Amino acid sequence: MRSSRRFAALAFALESLEARVVLSHVAPVVGHPLAAEVQTGTASVPGAPAPGASQAGLGMDMSAATQAGYTVYQQRTTHYSDGTTQIDDRLTVPNPNQNGTTTTDWISLRNGSGVEKMVTVATKAGNVITDNMTTTLPNGSVRTSVRTFTSEGRQTAINDTINPPTGGVETVTGTKTQRGHTQVVSQSINESDGVHQSHSVIINPNQYHQIETTTTTNPQGVSQTLKENTTIERLAPPSS
């Protein structure tokens, strides 16, 4: 089987789309109180900026804070069923003029595979969100992709075109269905060796916890299932 990072590169498809849309007519509320449930920590992935002192927006739900124009900084720690751990320091900066966001992930990959940096520029037009992604891999090579999400009610169509550093083009089609706190995502990835299938069930009990079970199947019909348990800690936004 291929590395799960190939499917993890599609991680934004598994999360709230609203968290990447800024309401351009909403101004940040200065001095919003810090909610009691918010825990602030320190960034730990090499290259990620140090948290600042400001508590602006920390008292709000992360999606609501982003939509209101606040910068949101979080650390995501994922424990996998195979005993490995991955840490992702994620900084989301609103782009009100584009009705979207720029999100930078500094990811300390599992299995000691190094640090990956992923920059995603999201824009919204009507019921379509477009992600332009640039990923710098641990060896310095770059992967780019353009992904669209077209929402109709509780279901979202996913289309992705990936340009891997080794050349060629990979395409992805899929659907994401929202059922309360649960999302079901099915994807087909067309690669040089054939079509890989991925089926994920993601449960978000609250904004600080995510449980995901993903089964991937390669072109030969061999499947593997990986479970992920992610905890999320809010960080104070960097000073600059």
Radius of gyration: 17 Å
Question: What class do helices, strands and sheet pairing give?
Answer: mainly beta
Shape: globular
Q: What's the count of strands?
A: 12
How many DSSP H or I helices?
A: 2
Beta-strand residue percentage: over 45%
Keywords:
single chain; 240 residues; mainly beta; Porin; twelve-stranded antiparallel β-barrel; 12 strands; disordered N terminus
Write the layout of secondary structure elements.
Layout: H1 5-8, H2 62-67, E1 72-80, E2 85-95, E3 100-108, E4 115-125, E5 128-136, E6 142-152, E7 155-163, E8 170-179, E9 182-191, E10 194-206, E11 209-217, E12 223-235
Antiparallel strand pairs: 1-2, 1-12, 2-3, 3-4, 4-5, 5-6, 6-7, 7-8, 8-9, 9-10, 10-11, 11-12
Concise description?
The protein is mainly beta.
Describe the overall structure:
With 240 residues, the chain is mainly beta. It has one domain: monomeric porin ompg (Porin), CATH 2.40.160. Helices cover 4% and strands 52% of the residues. It has a twelve-stranded antiparallel β-barrel with strand order 1-2-3-4-5-6-7-8-9-10-11-12. The longest helix is centred in the first third of the chain and has 6 residues.
